[in-house]
Specification:
heterodimer, A: 266 residues, alpha/beta, 6-stranded mixed sheet, 4-stranded antiparallel sheet, 23% strand, globular, B: 288 residues, mainly alpha, 2% strand
């Protein structure tokens, strides 16, 4: 279970560009729950993910995952329990390393990286099996550097790598936003399949309201660094994009001025 | 070029190739512009010279590796723990080593005349240098294919991804710069024994020479597997020595050598930009 207690984050505190990104965020996500997070630009969605992953330290509050206190752990230590996929497909993989070498990097997430062979006997066959499941033919290209792959292929690989070791938490930061619609759908389907198969706890930020309601079991809406809406169960099943927009405007007290968020909902 | 001169160039190329392997690790694998090299090269030569004078040339090589690695690690600590830019961290270590090297040698230079070296044991000197290069190259190739080596490559390739995969990128830099400068120290140590001479300023511009070797090698051997890339650094180092020998034979004043080295590196680095401009112009020309 992921527990956030009173998490606050302000950038450039006391400076001219002071910006409060998270205001006293508290939430609990039970193990195996797939939660989608929506909100317009600059409402703190990505900051929340980055604070959980350890990219930024928090100003106040605590973050625990399955009883493990993450708040003060450096990012690379948290990575042993957290898998991440970024919006930019370039960030999720090491471009000059081959497909199988990237898979090997993911396989040893959280374990000591000593002087034994980077790709052990039998690893290649295991990777090939996993890559075959993607249905992108990457199992035929295991010796090629990742830089030769398309954005969609890289993102699918990054997703597979993030989920490979069954992390206690999977963080997805608009990971299909930069892809063509066709491959975006494929990556989204793959996401749901991986989360289901691994029974993963996942937190997915998205701009797509429809996807936010159709994926996972719970939807959280953020505005100005706060959680203003948190729906699940029957309430969520009856929810439509239009109702969600209306609810947003009622709760936040201002109209939803993010065209991207609105349009992608239709 | 006479056969003797060619053999000499080849051998120098082989010895300097050990440094090129080190610089390949820092520049190409770790993606860190590490200027420690100029200092760690001389540090290796200094250690090698005083221990050779003391009758321990092999120990001199060993000391050079350790001292060089320590220098590289110092740069890594300055960079990662004290958050000093990599370029500046390297310059700082290099500057500090200037004094250290003079302290180690006790004077500005040491001549190794009638001194035992690894090159006058009776074994042909080319066998000694080639053998040592082979050991270093096999070590680098083996290391970069271990789990730790993968971590180091990932840290240099994509730091954000590396950290998100649980790699401690600071440790990777520490290890990488340690190995890179350990190799550089060994190269300096061998040069001192090969030329029977160590000088406090012999490292000036070494980083550029090593970088030139790496770039020349990449231009000659374009296939991008790790093995070929390591081989390229070695080939580049040998070609560089031949180029220098040829321009010297053409009557160039040795004083201008560093200038030539700088020009070679500028040309090699700007090749992609110049190539693109040239292509664009060609295209426009055809359009008209």
């Amino acid at each position: 279970m992921l527990v956030l207690k009173g998490v606050c984050k302000t950038f450039d505190k006391g400076g001219v560009n002071e910006k409060t990104a998270l205001k006293d965020i508290s939430a609990e996500i039970i193990s195996g729950q797939f939660v989608t997070v929506i909100g317009s630009n600059g409402t703190g969605k990505s900051t929340l993910l980055n604070c959980i992953a350890g990219l930024y330290g928090v100003d106040a509050g605590s973050i625990t995952l399955d009883g493990l206190e993450l708040t003060r752990l450096p990012e690379y230590r948290r990575a042993s329990v957290i898998g991440r996929v970024f919006q930019d497909p370039i960030i999720g993989t090491a471009p000059s390393m081959t497909v199988e070498e990237n898979m090997a990097l993911a396989l040893h997430r959280g374990s000591r990286r000593g002087l034994s062979r980077g790709i052990a006997k039998g690893d290649a066959a295991f990777f090939a099996g996993k890559l075959k499941d993607l249905g992108l033919g990457l199992e035929e290209r295991m010796k090629q550097p990742v830089s030769l792959l398309s954005g969609g292929q890289r993102q699918a690989l990054a997703l597979l790598m993030a989920a490979l070791k069954r992390p206690k938490l999977l963080l997805l930061d608009e990971h299909t936003a930069a892809l063509d619609p066709a491959i975006a759908k494929k990556v989204m389907d793959l996401t749901q399949a991986l989360v289901r198969e691994g029974n993963l706890t996942a937190l997915m930020v998205t701009h797509n309201m429809k996807a936010a309601l159709s994926c996972g079991r719970r939807t959280v809406m953020m505005d100005e660094g706060r959680i203003i809406l948190d729906i699940s169960g029957a309430e969520r099943e009856k929810m439509t994009v239009d109702k969600l927009v209306a609810l947003f405007e009622k709760r936040s007290g201002h109209i939803l001025d993010d065209d991207k968020l609105r349009l992608s909902g239709g | 070029m006479s056969i003797a001169a060619a053999a000499g160039s080849f051998e120098l190329g082989i010895i300097y190739a050990i440094m090129a392997l080190g610089v390949f690790i820092s520049y190409r694998i770790l993606n860190v512009p590490d200027l420690t090299v100029d200092g760690s090269f001389t540090l290796g030569a200094s250690c090698s010279a005083i221990l050779s004078v003391a009758g321990q040339p092999v120990l001199g090589l060993l000391a050079a590796v350790i001292a060089g690695a320590a220098a590289g690690m110092l740069t890594a600590v300055l960079n990662t723990k004290l958050k000093i830019q990599a370029l500046l961290a390297g310059i700082l270590t290099m500057l500090a080593l200037y004094s250290v090297n003079l302290r180690v040698m006790g004077k500005a230079n040491i001549a190794l005349i009638n001194t035992p070296t690894v090159f006058n044991t009776g074994i042909p000197s080319y066998a000694v240098s080639t053998g040592l290069l082979l050991v270093c190259a096999v070590f680098v190739y083996w290391f970069l294919n271990t789990k730790a080596g993968f971590a180091l490559r990932a840290a240099g390739d994509n730091e954000i991804m590396a950290r998100s995969a649980g790699i401690h990128t600071d440790s990777a830099k520490l290890l990488g710069l340690g190995i890179a400068n350990g190799l550089t120290g060994l190269s300096g140590a061998l040069i001192a024994q090969y030329q029977s001479f160590a000088d406090f300023s012999m490292g000036v511009g070494m980083v550029i020479i090593a970088l030139a070797s790496v770039i020349i090698g990449e231009a000659v051997l374009v296939k991008r597997t790790l093995f070929v890339r390591l081989l390229a650094a070695v080939v580049g180092s040998v070609i560089y020595r031949f180029v220098i020998a040829i321009v010297l034979q053409l009557g160039l004043n040795p004083v201008d050598l560093k200038l030539i080295s700088a020009v070679i590196v500028v040309l090699a680095l700007s090749m992609p930009v110049i190539g693109k401009r040239f292509k664009r112009r060609e295209k426009q020309g055809r359009g008209n």
